[in-house]
Amino acid sequence: MRLAATRADIVSLSGIGRTRPDGSQDTTGFAPGGIDRRIEFVRAATAGREIELQALVQRVILTDDPVGAAEQVRVSLPDLSIDDVLATPYLWIGTPESICEDILAARARWGFSYFTVFNDQLDSVAPIVARLAGE
């Protein structure tokens, strides 16, 4: 991340950290405090240079029961609390309306220029994009 922050025009963040000795991924970067620290590191390394920040959305879950969905997701993310799962910009969980609010809040808090989703999530993202576009 240091090289990207010192030289790149776009720095992408995914929330995923190093692979642990047991083969699991460090996901503490998903939590809002972890994101704050990573953004602070990037901003310090850019030395005032203008960059774009991109967030890689790991999963999109459209549901009327975000807490229930977050509890299921948390099984594979034991480093995180339910609140962390619901607050991270790397997991979009909720209704299209609530996810739009979360996206705008993440842009305001961390300065993400854009978000990227995986191809297999495009159908889930369509109503979110339409809502953000004002359709």
General description of the model:
It contains six helices and five strands, in the order H-E-H-E-E-H-H-E-H-E-H. The protein is of the alpha/beta class and 135 residues long. The chain has one domain. Strands 1-2-5 form a three-stranded parallel sheet, covered by helices on one side. It has a two-stranded parallel sheet with strand order 3-4. Strand 1, helix 2 and strand 2 form a beta-alpha-beta unit. Helix 5 crosses helix 6. It is globular.
In short:
The chain is α/β, with parallel strands linked by helices and 135 residues long.
Layout of helices and strands:
Blueprint: H1 2-7, E1 10-13, H2 32-46, E2 52-57, E3 59-62, H3 66-74, H4 82-87, E4 91-94, H5 96-110, E5 112-117, H6 122-132
Parallel strand pairs: 1-2, 2-5, 3-4
Tell me how many strands there are. Answer: 5
Helical content stands at 40-55%
* Rg computed from alpha carbons, rounded to a whole number of angstroms: 15 Å
Global structural class: alpha/beta
Query: What global shape is seen?
Result: globular
Element pattern in H and E: HEHEEHHEHEH
The description of the largest β-sheet is:
3 strands, parallel
Unreliable stretches, pLDDT < 50, 5 or more residues?
none
The share of residues in extended strands comes to 15-25%
Number of helices: 6
Q: How many domains, as an integer?
A: 1
Instruction: Give the mean pLDDT.
Output: 91
What distance separates the N and C termini? Answer: 37 Å
Which terms would index this structure?
135 residues, two-stranded parallel sheet, three-stranded parallel beta sheet, alpha/beta, single chain, 6 helices, globular
